[in-house]
Amino acid sequence: MLHGVYGAAVTMDGAARQHEHIAKNLAHSQIPGYRRTQLTQGTFDDSLQETTADLIARSSAGTRGLEESHDFTSGPLEQTARPLDIAIQGEGFFVIGERDEPLYTRNGSFTIDQLGNIVTKDGRTVQGTNGPMTLPINTTVEDVVVDQAGRVSANQIELGRIKIVQFEDNGKLVNVGTTLFRNPDNSGSEITQLDVQNTRLQQGSLEKSNVHPVQELVELIAVQRRYDAASRTLRTLMRTVEQRINLQRGT
Questions:
Q1: What is the enclosing helix (H) or strand (E) of 93?
Q2: Which end of the chain has the least Cβ crowding within 10 Å, N or C?
Q3: Whole-model pTM?
């Protein structure tokens, strides 16, 4: 019976955590380049390759722990007509920040700082293949042209090429911001420069979040039902435990 109590409690905890992630996804559904978070919960059968001790330890609840991951599928593109809104078509990430501590994002909403550097909205430098890209004096944002290969030019002067990288396993990236990721492999050995044949850039567009609000709401309802069912089960089991204790006491 106590195993049943523990199982119901674990289910309620998992449902509560899933509820938090769904709420987070819905709150960020309009942010360009946002990758939805998800929780995966394995079953007893998923653990067959683990040790017997691990299986026994987990069998009481019938589930494994919830693991957080990100969905890296592409989001839809939205035309904005802003010259420094750039969307990635295909795989890969923009490289931003300092060259020795780069961060990666799919959010291509860029601007120009006071020094003429192409930066993100929070002031992080957008890296080109040869370092940061700076607009010449008296050049306006409207003069900037970005082709599908990522080459940036202004008034027919080429400024560089936007650096796009990909990873062998996106699942190893660590989320460090709303749309920012860090590569835990400091050696950078997993980074590969993308071939333009597989990835293209589209100027004047942004990749929207890959969150589908309707699907999230449907999942939210399902999660709430699981929580309610587990809560009712827990209350029933606790009443049963209380009645048994009272019988043993003779009350």
A1: strand 93-96
A2: C
A3: 0.78
Q: Compute the distance between CA of residue 125 and CA of residue 110 in angstroms, rounded to an integer.
A: 9
Quick one: tokens of 128?
Answer: 């080109």
Distance CA 92, CA 74 (A): 10
Q: Give 58's DSSP letter.
A: H
Per-residue pLDDT tens digits for 121-131: 999 999 999 99
What are the pLDDT digits (tens) for 50-63? 444 454 444 444 45
Angle at 98 between CA 92 and CA 99, to 5 degrees: 65
Cβ neighbours of residue 118 under 8 Å, at least 6 residues apart?
A: 84, 110, 111, 112, 125, 126, 132, 133, 134, 135, 152
**Helices marked H in 110-251:** 213-249
Is residue 243 scored above 90 in pLDDT? no
Please determine, for residue 250, whether its predicted confidence score (pLDDT) is greater than 70: no
Phi, psi of 15 (to 5 degrees): -65, -40
Contact 44, 62 (CB under 8 A): yes
* Tokens (6 digits) for 64: 């494994």
CB atoms within 10 A of CB 75: 21
User: Which tokens go with 138?
Assistant: 């008296």
